[in-house]
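Consider the subject:
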Amino acid sequence: METSTLGQPGLEIALEGETVRVCLNGTWTLAGGIPATAAVVNAFETQPRVSRLRIEARDITRWDSALVTFVHSLAASGEAHGLPVELVGLPDGVLKLLRLARAVPRQVLERPVEDEAVTARVGRVALDGLRTAGDALDYLGETSLAFVALLQRQAQLPGKDLLRAVESAGVGALGIVTLISLLIGSVLAFVGAVQLRQFGATLYVANLVAIGITRELGALMTGIVMAGRSGAAFAAVLGTMTVNEEVDALRALGLRPTEFLVLPRVLATTAMLPALVVYADVLGILGGMLVGVSLLDVGAAEYLRQTQAALPLRHVVVGLVKGVAFGAVVSLTGCYYGIRCGRSAAAVGEATTKAVVMGIVLVVVVDALFTVALHVVGL
């Protein structure tokens, strides 16, 4: 038997047949230092007949994390050489800490490679993006099939959930839409008046507010508000249902979650958002009129006549069409992140955040696409 006295801890290393036996005794504390495992690893490498590692403790008087660190490192070295590791006589506290250390995933313990090639990072991000895009297409396909089944009267659409979603996406949003629309109309009128006053054309603030609100800002701001309100609510509710395995229960019963959970919310939001856009248009024009009457000395009747003369029907229709598109985008995005949520409470918060951010981004992107397309066709 070979005995080593590296620092204060007692460490004995012996080769018994095909087994390397490591005996620990005495005091094992950080103050006394942690012995190196090189001597044991050398026995693995120089003795080809070694097939087992045995770590046993005898008469350990005092210990702290030094003992845990040494045993964990030694066991990891043995496993790296393909040797089964046997632990004998170690204190219960040491065994519990070892089990806890082994439960931590390897990637958490290892430091990330800081000099990873840029091409590898780009490739990984691109691959993740392709997977997400494929999953989103699957989700859109499922929703489309559910909608087709509804048109064919083959889908089981829960009426109570539909009415509840209509109330939440419609009446429940009137307060915030009222405030935002009035303020946006007032700000737009005030900013326009600052420039138009230089040319003595303050009356044309009515034209600016009417067209800007009905064609762009009314639908856009309503869509953004609904992304932060209804989109987040859909993601949170469906994410919680996913965590509680309610979605899995529907699948186990042979029911399609898309019909029961996604379709009512998509239909309700898509139907109610154009109505909210009309409401926002009216209040936005009213906010502009308040500024025109109070600050620009424009009569209310004169302001309304100028608004009516400057507002062709096509601008209102464009805003309503955008409202339908924004409603579909917001509801589909919120439900997607809710259905695809992870299985923890933190995943629900993450899904809600992603739903809001992606919903707002998609609303702006869709609005930009509409603007370019309408310009091309001359509308």
Q: What stands out?
A: The chain has three domains: 2-109, 114-155, 157-377.
